Structures are given as C-alpha cells and as structure tokens.
C-alpha cells in the first residue's frame, strides 16, 4: 500500500476567468467545498500565462477549468498551457476538466474542450464537465462532477497498485515484445486483468497459454 492511498487526495483547482466574483469563481468555490467535504485537501490558484507552476508537483489531482469567451477557452489558462512550465509540471498528474459556457454541451465538447485536451494527451483525465449557465449553482451538477473525480481517482490508484504488484517473467516479456505493438498492449492489459481475477502475481508463458485458451481469449 502506498502513501497516496492513506493520505487524503491533494487537489488543486487551476482556473481562469475575466470576471471577478463571476460564475466561474462561484463554481470553483463550490467544487472546492464539495471536494473538501469528501476529506480531500484542496487549494485553488488563478492562472497567469507566464507563472511558475512547479507547485503543481505537490498535488495528486489537478482540476483545470475556465469559461469560454468568444469561442475560446479563457486566455490565461490556455496561455499557461502553451507558454509556461505548466504542461511539464502536469506530467503524470491525474486531471479533471470543466468549462463554464453558454453553448449547448455537444458544441462545447466538440469545440471548446479540445482546446484544453490537446495539451493533455498523455494525462489521465478522470472527469470532464461542461457547466451550462443553469448548472453553475446547481449542487447536484457539482456533486456529480466531484463524485466522478473521486471514483475515477480511486480506480486509477487501484489499477496502478495492481500493475505494480504484478510481475512478468523474462520469457513472458520476450513473448509479449515479439508481438506486433498494436496487439501487445491489448494482450498485456487483458492478461493483467486475468492475473488479478485469478490471484496470479507472476505472469509466465504458461499463464499466457492458459489465458489464451480461457473464455476471455485473445
Ligand atoms: C463576453 C462574453 C463572451 C462569451 N462568449 C461565449 C462563447 O463564445 N461561447 C459560449 O459558450 N459562451 C460564451 N459566453 C458565456 C460564458 O462562457 C459564461 O457566461 C461563463 O459562465 C462566464 O464566466 P464568468 O462569469 O466567470 O466570466 C460568453 C460570455 C461573455 C460575457
């Protein structure tokens, strides 16, 4: 068991808005309170495009959020992802995203969210949420987002622990490496699930053979 499981989640909300005391400010306060009520340690920081984001390393989960103005995600958050060391400091971090905007959800998912996600291709995204104007003060919409972050975070930690406990014999690894890369990833994760379900801690060529002939097949 790692320290991460025992201590509360450390989350930071990195946000931007041009409106002081506006809907985004209210939204991040509500998200922060809701997360804190689950036992998480939460901080918030308003983005500046050229700030130093080394402090992000201290956190397990980074929640990025902003409103949309004139079809573009608010500029200091986008700017930080492009110009500062934010992206570098987000490496390996689990991310949640939210946008506040007036457009319908399908439009926001298609046009606005990708403006953030294009910078986060290597991150695990735990949850993403578009807050429409009527949802920004809706406790249910906020709880749903926070709950998804919690559940997905717990799932990510479980997966990591499972993977780190599991070992591969040299022979099994050789067999895996000999496979075309487009199939080896799928086989590796299927085998890891199979091993977990069957209490196997060392994957050998025999395990590979048995799993191959099992109903899950591959
Ligand atoms: C000047 C301005 C431009 C906006 N442009 C868009 C837009 O292009 N697309 C959209 O979905 N919402 C747009 N909105 C709606 C805002 O994203 C939404 O009201 C958001 O909650 C504002 O956040 P704030 O109160 O923190 O500024 C715009 C709002 C303003 C005031």
How do the helices and strands line up, and which of them pair or pack?
Elements (H helix, E strand, L loop, with lengths): L2 H4 L3 E6 L7 H15 L3 E6 L14 E9 L2 E2 L1 H9 L2 H4 L4 E7 L4 H13 L6 E8 L7 H27 L1 E2 L1 H9 L2 H17 L4 E2 L1 H9 L5
The structure holds flavin mononucleotide.
Description:
By secondary structure, the protein is an alpha/beta fold. The chain folds into two domains: 160 residues, Flavodoxin domain (Rossmann fold); 48 residues, Proto-chlorophyllide reductase 57 kD subunit B (Helicase, Ruva Protein, domain 3, Orthogonal Bundle). It contains nine helices and eight strands. The strands form two sheets. Strands 1, 2, 3, 4, 5 and 6 form a six-stranded mixed sheet that branches. A hairpin with a 2-residue loop joins strand 3 and strand 4. The protein is elongated, with a radius of gyration of 20 Å. Bound molecules: flavin mononucleotide.
Bound molecules: flavin mononucleotide
Spell the H/E element sequence.
Answer: HEHEEEHHEHEHEHHEH
Q: What's the CATH class label of the largest domain?
A: Alpha Beta
Largest sheet geometry: 6 strands, mixed
Low-confidence stretches: 1-6
Total number of domains: 2
Examine the coordinates and then state which fold CATH places here, giving the name of the CATH topology of the largest domain.
Answer: Rossmann fold
User: How many helical elements?
Assistant: 9
């Amino acid at each position: 068991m790692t320290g991460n499981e025992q201590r509360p989640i450390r989350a930071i909300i990195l946000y931007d808005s041009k409106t002081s005391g506006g809907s985004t400010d209210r939204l991040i306060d509500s998200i922060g309170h809701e997360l804190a009520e689950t036992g998480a340690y939460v901080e918030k920081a308003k983005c500046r495009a050229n700030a130093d984001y080394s402090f992000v390393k201290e956190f397990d989960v980074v929640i990025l959020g902003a409103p949309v103005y004139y079809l573009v995600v608010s500029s200091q958050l986008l700017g930080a992802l492009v110009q500062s060391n934010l992206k570098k400091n987000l490496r390996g971090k689990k991310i949640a995203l939210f946008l506040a905007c007036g457009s319908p959800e399908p439009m926001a998912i298609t046009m606005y969210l990708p403006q953030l996600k294009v910078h986060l291709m290597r991150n695990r995204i735990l949850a993403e949420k578009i807050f429409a104007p009527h949802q920004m003060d809706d406790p249910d919409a906020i709880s749903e987002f926070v709950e998804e972050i919690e559940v997905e975070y717990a799932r990510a930690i479980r997966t990591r622990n499972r993977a780190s406990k599991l070992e591969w014999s040299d022979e099994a690894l050789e067999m895996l490496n000999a496979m075309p890369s487009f199939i080896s990833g799928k086989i590796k994760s299927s085998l890891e699930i199979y091993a977990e379900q069957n209490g196997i801690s060392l994957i050998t060529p025999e395990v590979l053979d048995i799993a191959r002939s099992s109903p899950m097949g591959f």
